[in-house]
Amino acid sequence: MAISNNNTENIENGLDFQPRFNADGLITAISQEADTGEILMVAFMNQQALDETIKTGNAVFYSRSRKKLWRKGEQSGHFQKVLDILVDCDQDCLILKVEVDQGQCHVGYKSCFYRTLDKNDPKKLRFNAEKVYDPKEAYGK
Amino acid sequence: MAISNNNTENIENGLDFQPRFNADGLITAISQEADTGEILMVAFMNQQALDETIKTGNAVFYSRSRKKLWRKGEQSGHFQKVLDILVDCDQDCLILKVEVDQGQCHVGYKSCFYRTLDKNDPKKLRFNAEKVYDPKEAYGK
After folding, report:
1. Where along the chain is Zn(2+) bound (chains A, B) (predicted)?
2. Domains in chain B, please, with CATH?
3. Dist CA A71 CA B115 (whole Å)
4. ipTM entry
5. Which of A58, A104, B26, B77 would bridge B44 by S-S if both were Cys, CB 3.0 to 4.6 A apart?
6. CB-CB neighbours of A124 under 10 Å
């Protein structure tokens, strides 16, 4: 999204929090484990999800597929306790520094990023982690 | 984006790399410093940017504002050497594990995420880093 010059200085160098939601009213939010730096997941927030995250201290996203607030952990029990929220230069992306228990990804891994591109064949992936819980038990699938 | 049930198992648990570009032909890419875990920036790639990143080993993005490939470092000299590429469960987001020199953000900081929400006033930010280079020199502004 283009930023007018008048606002750029304030958005980039200022200390007012001015989250820039996209045309769908969403902002990208990355959950990163605070003590290890591991990126756990990437999702979206709308204004309400952001407000509730700040108010409750637990990560709340907006589910584009279900079109409603997604209170992470509500169903699985795997909450994300938010210690800090960082914002990037143009204020269209957030990092949530979180504390978690174990599995965060609905597939059963701690992080959603459990696969790495194969350097010998970039059409293929390799697993870089092992499942830490059984999603069938957590989600009753 | 909704995924049909037929494909979900393969996308989530398979080892075929099937990057899922959005309606604009873009996929989210997070640059993360490999040795520290620090998140440096979040941007987008189109298919061409991804192919060129894999081929050259240097991060290439797609600039939505300039509507063209953005070979990171071409102008500033701050390249990102890509050591690994990770993909998330639904294959609509990538992590680039990178090696960098110093300043990566065009504002002058190493990371774009140089501000943190103030816990006492969530409308305000505080700086969490100091500038590491002068963007006026790097970009000739």
Report:
1. 89, 105, 112
2. 18-139 (3.10.20.810)
3. 25
4. 0.92
5. B26
6. 14
**pLDDT in 10s for each residue of chain A, 141 residues:** 455 566 899 999 999 999 999 999 999 999 999 999 999 999 999 999 999 999 999 999 999 999 999 999 998 888 999 999 999 999 999 999 999 987 889 999 999 999 999 999 999 999 999 999 888 876 664
Instruction: Please answer whether residues B88 and A113 qualify as being in contact, where contact means their C-beta atoms are separated by less than 8 angstroms.
Output: yes
Euclidean distance between CA atoms A52 and A55, whole angstroms: 5
Minimal CA separation from A115 to chain B, in Å: 6
Tens-digit pLDDT profile for residues A101-129: 878 899 999 999 999 999 999 999 999 99
Q: Is A105 annotated as a binding-site member?
A: yes
Task: Determine if residue A93 is labeled as part of a ligand binding site.
Answer: no
CA gap B135, B141 in Å, rounded: 7
Element at B6 (helix H, strand E): helix B5-13
B112 is annotated as contributing to ligand binding:
yes
Closest by Cβ to A15, choosing from B36, B41, B126: B126
